[in-house]
Task: structure prediction
Amino acid sequence: MTLNPYLNFDDNAEEAFRFYHTIFGGEFFIQKMDQAPGTENLPESEKNRSMHVSISIGKNQFLMASDCLPSQGHVLTQGNSNYISITPDSREEADRLFNGLSAGGKVEMPMDDMFWGDYFGSFVDKFGVCWMINFPSNAK
Result:
């Protein structure tokens, strides 16, 4: 089984994923709303929104997203009910991911050795997405 996080944005999915791509690398894919059949009746303001955007992360893993369509009743409500949790392969990679993704966002817990023994930090990025970086102590 593979679990891939899927995010929603309000007309800035492409911007967010171009930013994430600078951190994660991998293959970047984007398809706009106006490329899908049946979207010719969308308002002009929605035709350039992202229908699907993704980047590959590691083997058979993807971070994916789309933009909401206000004309279809979609409303983005940002909140803290979901986090993307990343387990990197090293402390150095943990720091690189944390520093890159948190740039322009709000740090909740800076990267530090935690009482449970792991190296951990959390933040909300500049797009309102919540992230956790956790390097397990037994992975040293």
